[in-house]
Amino acid sequence: MAKNRETSEKNLSLFSLQNHNLVCVKFAASFFFLALAFRLLFWDSFSLSSFVQFQKPQPQTVSPVVSSPLKAPEPSDAFHLNNQNQTSLNGSGKCNLFVGDWVSDLAEPMYTNESCRVIEPHQNCMRNGKPDLGYLYWRWNPKECELPKFNANKFLNRMRNKAMAFIGDSISRNHVQSLLCILSQVEQAVEVYHDKEYRSKIWKFPSHNFTLSVIWTPFLVKAAIYEDMNGVSSSMVQLYLDTLDSQWTEQFNTFDYVVIGGGKWFLKSAVYHENNTVAGCHYCPGKNLTDLGFDYAYRKALRLVFNFFTKDSSHNATVLFRTTTPDHFENGEWFSGGYCNRTVPFKAGDISMVDVDSIMRGVEGEEFEKAITSVGSENGVKLKLLDTTFLSLLRPDGHPGPYRQFQPFAKDKNGKVQNDCLHWCLPGPIDSWNDIVMEMLVNG
Ligand SMILES: *[C@@H]1O[C@H](CO)[C@@H](O)[C@H](O)[C@H]1NC(C)=O
Ligand SMILES: *[C@@H]1O[C@H](CO)[C@@H](O)[C@H](O)[C@H]1NC(C)=O
Ligand SMILES: *[C@@H]1O[C@H](CO)[C@@H](O)[C@H](O)[C@H]1NC(C)=O
Ligand SMILES: *[C@@H]1O[C@H](CO)[C@@H](O)[C@H](O)[C@H]1NC(C)=O
Ligand SMILES: *[C@@H]1O[C@H](CO)[C@@H](O)[C@H](O)[C@H]1NC(C)=O
Ligand SMILES: *[C@@H]1O[C@H](CO)[C@@H](O)[C@H](O)[C@H]1NC(C)=O
Ligand SMILES: *[C@@H]1O[C@H](CO)[C@@H](O)[C@H](O)[C@H]1NC(C)=O
Ligand SMILES: CC(=O)N[C@H]1CO[C@H](CO)[C@@H](O)[C@@H]1O
């Protein structure tokens, strides 16, 4: 714990960024991607060590985009198509868990910052002084059915002698922490492993012989990330789009349940490798390489991931693919004063996704469709879509915002404070993701 905190504080100093010029990139909104790339660097860096080469966008380039971040283009068609598809794929007439709205629920959260010991300081919104606790009192209400609250006893009994892993980036970590907190009502987990950077961990629930892991692999594919002692990258990320990250694939056979997801790290500038050659890059000015766009790499990576589940592996596991997570910075980005101080959820239709999320969500939908139709009957894997994008989009109120720090305004009421409008408070809306996981894995 102490070590963790030390690391995070050290990495906050990463904030001194270099200046680079922007050049034209593939998408009109590319500077927005770049902004996201930054942000992700930052968000992963304050709890972990950090990575990535980053470049500071010119302010004049950024401002037109960030002035209306919530006025995004089209509500993603892919989203709707895909939800319908999932229903029809499922065939049993069971309701779609991912279409619905947030309704008021006065029940107390299943855990508190006192009962759960694994809430990291930057997610402990209550302790840090988030003034409006209204975000705790909402329940995800699927349109066509009831979504029961997570039942920790039932879940742990089902998971007896089983192993489950969350595979992905810092959002996956956020998700597993929520699960640990919920389960702590019944049994405290014992941490039995962590890697050097505290990014990948394994916990045991001794009285249920249940093993829970989180594996940090933000690209899911093999990636080389170069950083110097300050966590500042000396070279661009090298992504190997034809090779999965063996960190997770080698362990896959030991898991009964997997929740896998990623995405946002693909927005960073990177060189793409395939077939032992450089195939191109994303945002690599001055490199004389073809900018293939992040969606190219994300598609390749997902295809590889899904092929692994549906063709390469014959291991009998249930895999939930979690879709991309929108953030809620308004009137700016994380580095330009963006904030998220709304106190109630959006209603469906009041908000649409920004470009990057739509593109990413589209790629996810298309590749998932292809994968699901190609699962052979001899294959043991059960692949399901954990489509949290839309329900999360509706929750601008559940992020730490400035309250990722302890009492951020104690010294200076008008002080400039960094906001986190990407990760979720614990307890918070991400707990509902686990209600859905419970429904899909245990009740379903
Ligand atoms: C998913 O939806 C698309 C578009 O409606 C359709 O073409 C495709 O066949 C569907 N896939 C399945 C498996 O139903
Ligand atoms: C939990 O939050 C309350 C404020 O709601 C705070 O007073 C208390 O110190 C916090 N406890 C821990 C262990 O973080
Ligand atoms: C605990 O679970 C593992 C599988 O995750 C199994 O191999 C082992 O035999 C179990 N231990 C006991 C004591 O049941
Ligand atoms: C890599 O090889 C595969 C088949 O061997 C081919 O389909 C693909 O286009 C190649 N990719 C590149 C970037 O050369
Ligand atoms: C860029 O690459 C192409 C082919 O890969 C080469 O013909 C050209 O000379 C390169 N340009 C520079 C400025 O290096
Ligand atoms: C959010 O902050 C902005 C800028 O400080 C302010 O104008 C607005 O009233 C705030 N909204 C809420 C709901 O507090
Ligand atoms: C896969 O495992 C489940 C229990 O985890 C079992 O019910 C099912 O029969 C297994 N399927 C195959 C094909 O082995
Ligand atoms: C036919 C089919 O796959 N039905 C499944 C639909 O989804 C529920 C839970 O999400 C499963 O319990 C069904 O088996």
Describe the structure in your own words.
There is one protein chain. The chain is of the alpha/beta class and about 450 residues long. It has one domain. It has twelve helices and 13 strands. A seven-stranded mixed beta sheet has the order 4-5-6-3-9-12-13, with helices on both faces. It starts with a helix and ends with a helix. Residues about 1-95 have low confidence and may be disordered. The chain binds 2-acetamido-2-deoxy-beta-D-glucopyranose (8 copies). One 2-acetamido-2-deoxy-beta-D-glucopyranose (NAG) binds near residues 85, 88, 369 and 373.
Q: Can I get a quick summary?
A:
Helices cover 30% and strands 16% of the residues. The protein has helices at 2-12, 30-45, 59-66, 77-90, 125-128, 152-158, 170-183, 246-249, 294-312, 355-373, 389-393, 430-443, and strands at residues 100-104, 138-142, 163-168, 190-194, 201-205, 210-216, 221-224, 237-244, 257-261, 270-274, 277-282, 318-322, 382-386. The strands form 3 sheets. A 7-stranded mixed sheet has the order 4-5-6-3-9-12-13, with helices on both faces. A 4-stranded mixed sheet has the order 7-8-10-11.
